Amino acid sequence: MAKESEQPRRKLTEIREDNLQQILDAAEDMFAEQGFRGTTVASIAEAVGLPKANVLYYFKTKEGLYKAVINRLLTIWMENMNEMTADMHPKDALRSYISTKVNQARENPNASRIFAADILHGAHFLRAPLEAELKDQFDRTCDVFRSWMDKKWIDQANPEHLMFMLWSTTQAYADHGLQMGILMKKECLDDEDYAQGIELLTQIILKGCGVE
Q1: Positive or negative, the Cα torsion across 53, 54, 57, 60?
Q2: How many CA atoms lie within 13 A of 65 on its CB side?
Q3: CATH architecture under which domain 1-60 falls
Q4: Do 101 and 170 contact (CB within 8 A), yes or no?
């Protein structure tokens, strides 16, 4: 009997998770294209084929949905940063981080554009997570860089600015991807462009950090 009752519960959980991801994906696209003010909960609900009440059941308000989209991106970014550890050689750690971030910018540019737009408007929604979760992970990653310096795996440098450089160079492929394509007379960057970009960024950053 218990096993029979577990089955519908599991199905309900799967349906809920599917709905959440579909809503977040649609919201991400709309917020990136139309901004926070130009997007409505009704339009997001229509895009995923759910009643507006269902969307509000999961996220309560449009602001709550916007924050959820941003938090999903921040979680991914923090996981990427957390993969760089003190016992991992920077040659491998930085190469992996750069490749991962550029590919994420390619596959999911909208989330990064929402992040950039909120920063440009004073970090109204981002300020709280920036000052809390992201700041904690930022400090831990800077400590990893310091440990690499202590081991003489990389040259002495300001760890905070190294992290800023990693962020800005990799996110450029999301925030300025359209501009890059226009300047290269392409509809969009192709596999070779991304591969060359990753390799060049990796070479410059490793060389700049004195990694052998």
Answers
A1: negative
A2: 33
A3: Orthogonal Bundle (1.10)
A4: yes
Distances (CA, A) of 77 to 6, 109, 154: 35, 13, 23
Give me the amino acid identity at 41. Answer: V
Which residues 6+ apart lie within 8 Å of 108 measured at CB? Answer: 28, 174
Task: For the chain, give every domain's residue range.
Answer: 1-60, 62-208
8-state DSSP, 207: H
Q: What are phi and psi of 95, to 5 degrees?
A: -60, -45
Residue that the structure tokens 């950039």 belong to: 116
CA gap 195, 103 in Å, rounded? 9
- What are 48-75's pLDDT values in tens digits? 999 999 999 999 999 999 999 988 989 9
Please state the pTM of the whole predicted model: 0.85
159 CB burial (10 A radius; 0-12, 13-18, 19+): buried
* 137's tokens: 């992970």
- What does CATH list as the number for 62-208? 1.10.357.10
pLDDT at residue 126, as a whole number: 83
Q: What are the tens digits of pLDDT across the range 184-208?
A: 999 989 999 999 999 999 999 999 9
